[in-house]
Design a protein that fits this description.
single chain, mainly beta, six-stranded antiparallel beta sheet, four-stranded antiparallel beta sheet, 3 helices, about 5% helix, elongated
Amino acid sequence: MSIKRKILVFIVAMYFTALSAMSTTLPDNVLQTIKSQCPNVSVRFDGLITLQDGTIYIPVLPSNPKRNAQGKIVSTVPANRKLSQKPDIVLFDSNFALLRVIKSKDGKLGIAPSSQIPFIVKTGIFPQDMLVPPGLVIPDDLQIMMGDLKIATVSSRVNDIFKTTVGVDSKSKTTANKIVPIPYMAGKTLLVTTLDSTLLSVIPSDSTTPKFTLRLENLPKFVQPVSNDDYVLIAAAGKTYIDVADVKNEVLAKKIDLTFQPSEIVLNSDKSKAFVSVVDDQSIFVIDIKSMSLLEKIKVKGYPKHIAISPDNKQIAYQDKNTGDIYTLSLEANYLNKYVYNASNISKIVVDGNNIYLLSRTENCLQVIDSEIKDIIYKQDLAKKPVDMLLIKDKLYILCATNELDIFNLNNFECIRALQLPAGGFSKKLVVVPNSNLLLITNVSDKKYYVYDMVKNTILQTVQTSVYINDLQLLNKRLN
C-alpha cells in the first residue's frame, strides 16, 4: 500500500472515530431511502441495520462523500435489486454503502467476495463504535476498513454474555416446568438476579425454570431493559462501566464507562434518558438511550442512593448515603440542588411535586415530606419492614417484607391495608406488567412470585421458580 494511501486511511479513521465516539448516525436521506423500502427496519445506535426478517447490514462510511447527494441507491450486487430483495452490496449516491452479513451453509458469517466490492467502498471505514456480528470474518485485503475496530470472534469475551451456561440444558426440561400464564403475561420474559450469583436467569413467562442464563462479570448491581426491550443496561459490582446488551442480535453491543462504579438507575417517563448514581462520587450521570452515550455528569450534594424521578421528569429526589440527608435535584437547566430533610433507615423514595414519600424500615411507616416547608406533613404506620413502593396514578403501592401489600391513596392521604400475602419468605419487590392492571410481587427467600390484580385486589397466580429472586425485570417479549 502506498504512503499516500496509508495517510488517507489514517485521516479517515481518525475523523470517523471522533464522530462515532458518541454514536453513529446514518445520513438522513440514506435512512429515509432505507425505511421507504423496508419500513420495519431497525437501526442500532452504532449504525448496524437489521431488517424485519433478521438480515443484517454493516454500514461503510465513505472516505470521500459526495456533496448534494440525495440518498439514492446507485448500484447493488447483484445488480438492480431493491433493499427489500436483500442484495449483498448497496451503494448510495453519497458513496455511503451497506454490506450484507451472509451466512454460509456451515453457519459461518461473512460478506460478499472482495472482488465484487467496488473500490470506492473499499476506501471507506466501518463505524468505530460498532460491534461486528460475532464470528464474522473479513477478507485480508479489507482489513484496512476496520480502522481501530476490533472484529469479534465466537470465542471473544464480548459475546460470552449470551452463551448458555454449562448445566442449563433446554432439552432436559420436562413439561412439569411449564405453566399456563394468565392473560397479559403470555409471551413475556423475566430477567432474574440473585444475591449470591453472577448469573442472570432468563425465564419465559410460561416456565418456572430458566431457558438459559447469562454470565455477568460480577454480582449485578442493576439490570434495566430499555428501547422497547431491545437492549438491557447491566451494571456489575466493582466495574466502572455499564454494559449494553443487544437482545435482538445477542451480543454485548457497548460499554459506557463512567469512571466510577454505577449503583442505581432510573429512567424518565419516555425512557429516553437514564440517570445513574455511582458508589464513590457525588454525581449523577445522564445517559442518552437513543445513542447509548454519556450526555453529562451532574455534580450533586452528598452521595446519592435511593434515587427517584418525578412523574413529570422535573426533579430527582435522593438520600445521601453518608448522612441520611434527603435532597431534590431540579432537572431544568440550572440543576438546583436543595436540602429537604434528614431521615434514617430509608428503604425507598418516591417524589411527586412538592411531596417526597419515604419508607422507614425501622419505624415501619410512610413519611410524607413537603419539600417547600422541609418537614413531615403526614405519617402513616405500615406493616413491618416496608421495602418497596410504586406510584401508580393516584395511589402508592407499598410492599412490606412481612408479606403484606398496603395501598396509600394520595387524594385523601388514607392508607388501606389491602392484602395479606401468603405466609413464608421475605417479600422484596413490585414490578409493573405493561399495559395491564397487574403487578408482580417477588419473594427473595421463597423461590416464588405472585401475579396480583390491582383492580380486583387479589392474587391471580402464584409461580414457583427454581431460583431465588433478588431482582426481577420484565421484558415485554419472548427471547428465542
